[in-house]
Amino acid sequence: MRQVIHISNLGLRFQNKSVFSDLSWTINRGENWVLGGESGSGKTALAKILTGKQSASGEVEINFETESNLPAQVLFVESWYQFKNVEGVANFYYQQRYTSQQAKETLTVNAELAHFGKEENLNFSDAEKLLKALGFSGLRDSQLIELSSGEHKKLQLVKALWLKPQLLIIDQPYTGLDIASRKSLNTLLDNIAKAGVTLILISNDEELPTCINRFAEIEDGKLVELESAKEITVIKEDFERTLPEFLKQSPIYSSSEIAKMIDVNISYGDKQVLKNINWEVKAGEKWLLQGHNGSGKSTLLSLINGDHPQSYANELYLFGNKRGSGESIWDIKQHIGLISPEFHWYFDATATVWDSVASGLYDSVGLFQQLPYTKAKHVDELVAYFGLTEYKKELLSSLPLGKQRLVLLARTVIKNPELLILDEPCQGLDKQQTAQFNQLVDELSHHGMTVIYVGHFEAQLPSCLTKKIVLKDGEVIANEEIIKNRILEEAYSIVE
Amino acid sequence: MANYFNTLPLREQLNQLGVCDFMDNSEFLDGVEALKGKKIVIVGCGAQGLNQGLNLRDSGLDVSYTLRKEAIEGKRDSWKNATENNFKVGTYEELIPSADVVVNLTPDKQHTAVVNAIMPLMKKGSTLLYSHGFNIVEEGMQIRKDLTVIMVAPKCPGSEVRAEYVRGFGVPTLIAVHPENDPERKGLAQAKAYCVGTGGHRAGVLKSSFVAEVKSDLMGEQTILCGLLQTGSILSFDKMVEKGIDAGYASKLVQYGVEVITEALKHGGVSGMMDRLSNVAKVEAFKISEELKDIMRPLFEKHQDDIMAGEFSRIMMEDWANGDKNLLAWRAETGETAFEKTPAGDVKIGNQEYFDNYLLMVAFVRAGVELAFETMVEAGIKPESAYYESLHETPLIANTIARKKLFEMNRVISDTAEYGCYLFDQACKPLLADFMKKVGTDLVGKNFNEGKDGAVDNSELVRINEILRNHEVEIIGTKLRKAMTAMKTIKTA
Ligand SMILES: NC(=O)c1ccc[n+]([C@@H]2O[C@H](COP(=O)([O-])OP(=O)(O)OC[C@H]3O[C@@H](n4cnc5c(N)ncnc54)[C@H](OP(=O)(O)O)[C@@H]3O)[C@@H](O)[C@H]2O)c1
Question: What topology is assigned to A245-495 in CATH?
């Protein structure tokens, strides 16, 4: 059989909207595909149909090779991975990974892999190599709850690469991965493709494994083949462009000192995640925070956002006050707008879009209060600014991830905070959306807001950033002015 | 020590049982002020201890932990919980003498020993705080007259107390001041501040008394919450197997059925749950639940009487002294039931199917909730308290059964609840023997509506709906749910 997959006449409707009509797609042996296109075009739905998780009308034929020694399986690595606790329920909150609790709620990485290996009859020594290649070996004894979203992604990738199913579909393989990990991933994908795995990557990225030789996107419910990844359509979202008036006001600073850390150390048992950190952020400064996966970036930010229990034992000043001098975490949070992949992950997706944005005024997950009239108007304006008005009454969970992210970005700025903490804010957004959001950050910072921005890719940064701090294995290895080098200038040309 | 409640004259008994006031938001405007700068020392760092402490510290209060010597020297989990989250930890001698508020969050069974050890060290005029009143009410613990004694009892497991707090919300909480120990009249202000510190003030606070909390808590947990769910589950499973229903299906229906069915209580109370049934099914469920109420009423009354008289705690404490002989035997027995041993089958059961094929449980839940509520109110407990300890908590407990059946439920609840649950279960099963003989698969295992034309006598249906909606638990429930959802507009999931 030359054809691995043959789809014809595929049709799917969702909430009275047509997702696919008469879609056809043939994948032959030796082909590895990239599927791109705008958020909400049906890429994920198509993958789910191939794995049998979603039913649709029409014909879907999958031909496994009987002589192959690879398992006759379709494996779909979802972009969003919800792990469970040992009791099989998932009710976590995002600060949980910073709290030490002896009653273990989740499995360790090792136990999770052992379980998977046993179910699929795999050889554990093969997994070792993958863990090493993706820089994951150090996390083997970590609990699932302690992993960052990038690390969870890697864990799912390790499982997929270990299993080597005959057909492997990965939704957003690169989100949350640092540059080095992206490179190793591409090499590993090339290896399994050589071994006979057929790949489908759902991604708008251009730096793909060399084995990728076919390109497509979904347009108006049909599959359209393209020449290369460069041709993938970047849609122009209709952003309302003028910044709402209330965001043009300069934030009122309670202190010129936003954050100051003196010899800060954080460890869990004998694992030290931050070592002797000294860092000062002054009102109005714009910082870039960088470091590899697991270098301690999120932990550092959790100290500033009042989320880390160990901040009480460190010398830390926030908004002019020594941490642990009688302030509550709500006193701290009211100065800050924060987003991070983990925050998104644990956010209550059963809230409506409008309420999710509004909840930023109170720093709560879910809205528990009635809004005063002027605040409600601000929410309306901001929702419109982000082009979300038509979704405002929908549940967050019913939106594609990229749109959900926009909602949470709106939430971070709704109170026009003194400090914006943006930890990979544009993860899951396409280039156009990223450029637009970065432009918003630039505008806000122009009005005096303080910014701390975490971004892996230098090509997708707002231009306002002037200072940079870099972490490696929990230590500061650079704390300097950003010199606008060539890469960055290229980056700005994209933004402008 | 004498049972505190029994030492009170009748008038005072009724007085304390009747303390019950759903507090308004405006009563919490002072925030944590009453505890600001005060030294709060928590004894024990388990489920409640750690999570309450994390919340209090994050609310700007000064929190440290004291543990028994063995725990510190042995670096036990409680020691790790506290130190790894950067709390100060010390022995009783080191920390209690300077404490303004000592919070006792050790297991209830240990309270007498713990309080006897810490009380002599407590400074004059300080405060002792509990999260459950058993020690004061049932064991009659006498607290030094210069000390203030208060209670702040979250109506949820410790992990939820923390999870809801960091989301910016909280869990429903009961607060109380012990009238024998409020020499400086500061008890209420401190209890309110502590409640704010744990986030409880955002989710609905009931001002209660030690007596009302204990008597209603015990009654609720041993009858409707744990006892009846256990009895109902076991009988239903056994009946299905006896009638030839696939055991895997039966196991799944029972394990997840209680959760799905009681979930409906959260939003619409008992009538909301009954409304999930077709008209014919509702009429039938109503009839058998009436019958169940008649059969079980004497047992509910006996439990309430024994709780009021202190008889229940007397025999339970006898068992404590006896090395938990009965408790351990009953626990083992529960682990061995056929329901426990049969894994849930790999079958799909739709949401509505849980109602249609498990009418018997709907009837059990209605009968149990109403009986528990009625019996408590008759005994002098106020409807608001009775509501919290019956209808409100039922879905929370049902949830633990869905996780891992009855063994899990009994593991999660307190030892006191577990003991009472077995006691009820042992007595209830024989009581229902005759009733169960008449039960067929139309009530449990198969769709009740099958083969019926769906016609009902309209006037009868109207009458039934009226009875359901006019029950006091529905009237008070509607009021309390409204107050809570006004605060919690979204967070119902
Ligand atoms: N669980 C709930 O859902 C809930 C809800 C509301 C109220 N409450 C109440 O909260 C209180 C605590 O319950 P919990 O569930 O948190 O208990 P738990 O998890 O069992 O924790 C008990 C703590 O007390 C310590 N401890 C045990 N025996 C002790 C002794 N003899 N002397 C000193 N310390 C001792 C333990 O540490 P070491 O053994 O390491 O010393 C542990 O840290 C109880 O009054 C309970 O009724 C519980």
Answer: Rossmann fold (3.40.50)
Flag whether B348 is in a domain: yes
Does residue B217 share a domain with residue B183? Answer: no
Task: Looking at the structure, tell me whether residues B116 and B139 fall in a common domain.
Answer: yes
B117 and B264 assigned to the same domain = no
Our count of domains for chain B comes to 2
B73 within domain boundaries = yes
Enumerate residues lining ligand 1, CB below 6 A. B 44-49, 67-68, 71, 76, 78, 105-108, 110, 113-114, 131-132, 153-154, 157-158, 414
User: What global pTM score does this model have?
Assistant: 0.86
Element (H, E) at B208: strand B205-208
CATH of residue B192's domain is 3.40.50.720
List, for residues A184-234, the tens digit of each pLDDT value: 999 999 999 999 999 999 988 778 999 999 999 888 888 888 888 777 776
Which residue has its alpha carbon closest to ligand 1 atom 15?
Answer: B47
Q: For chain B, how far is it from start to end, CA to CA, in angstroms?
A: 45
**Nearest-neighbour CA in chain A from B402: distance (Å):** 10
Q: Are the beta carbons of A225 and A215 closer than 8 angstroms?
A: yes
Chain B residues with CB under 8 Å of A350 CB are 490, 492-493
Task: Please report how many Cα atoms fall inside a 13 Å half-sphere around the Cα of residue B477, on the Cβ side.
Answer: 26
**In angstroms, rounded to a whole number, what is the distance separating the alpha carbons of residues A76 and B268?**
40
> How distant is the Cα of A349 from the closest Cα of chain B, in angstroms?
10
- Point out the domain boundary residue: B208, B238, B254: B208
The single residue of B132, B178, B303, B392 carrying the catalytic annotation is B132
Cβ(B266)–Cβ(B485) below 8 Å: no
Question: For residue A469, what is the enclosing H or E element?
Answer: strand A467-472
Residue of B nearest to A364 (CA): B168
In angstroms, rounded to a whole number, what is the distance separating the alpha carbons of residues B59 and B192?
A: 13
Residues B220 and B170 in one domain: no
The encoded tokens of residue A454 equal 């975490």
How many other C-beta atoms are found inside a 10 Å radius of the C-beta of residue A240?
15
For domain A3-231, give the CATH number: 3.40.50.300
Per-run averaged pLDDT (10 residues), chain B, 493 residues: 91 92 91 97 95 97 97 94 94 98 95 97 98 95 97 87 89 94 97 97 91 93 90 95 93 91 89 94 95 96 95 94 93 90 85 93 96 95 91 84 80 85 94 94 91 87 94 90 55 29
Q: Domain residues of chain A, as ranges?
A: 3-231, 245-495
Q: CA-nearest residue of chain B to A322?
A: B60
Same domain, yes or no: B186 and B262: no
What domain range includes position B138? 20-208
Pair (B316, B283) in one structural domain: yes
B296 shares a domain with B229: yes
User: Distance from the CA of B112 to the center of ligand 1, in angstroms?
Assistant: 13
Counting one residue from A and one from B, how many pairs have CB atoms under 8 Å apart? 91
Q: Is position B12 within any domain?
A: no
Mutate to test the interface with A, among B77, B84, B164 (most CBs of A within 10 A): B84
Q: What token pair was written down for A474?
A: 């929990």
Query: How far B255 CA sits from the closest chain A CA (Å)?
Result: 14
Domain termination residue (choose one: B193, B208, B223): B208
CB contact under 8 A, A269 and B84: yes
* CATH number of the domain where residue B256 is located: 1.10.1040.10
**Which residues of B are less than 8 Å from A95 in CB distance?**
166
Helix (H, G, I), strand (E, B) or coil at B271: helix
Burial classification of residue B485, based on how many CB atoms lie within 10 Å of its CB (0-12 exposed, 13-18 middle, 19 or more buried):
middle
Per CB-CB distance under 8 Å, the chain A contacts of B408 are 87
Residue with tokens 């606070």: B205
Looking at chain B from residue 193 to 222, which residues have their Cβ under 8 Å from any Cβ of chain A? 202
Decide if B132 is catalytic.
yes
ipTM of the complex: 0.81
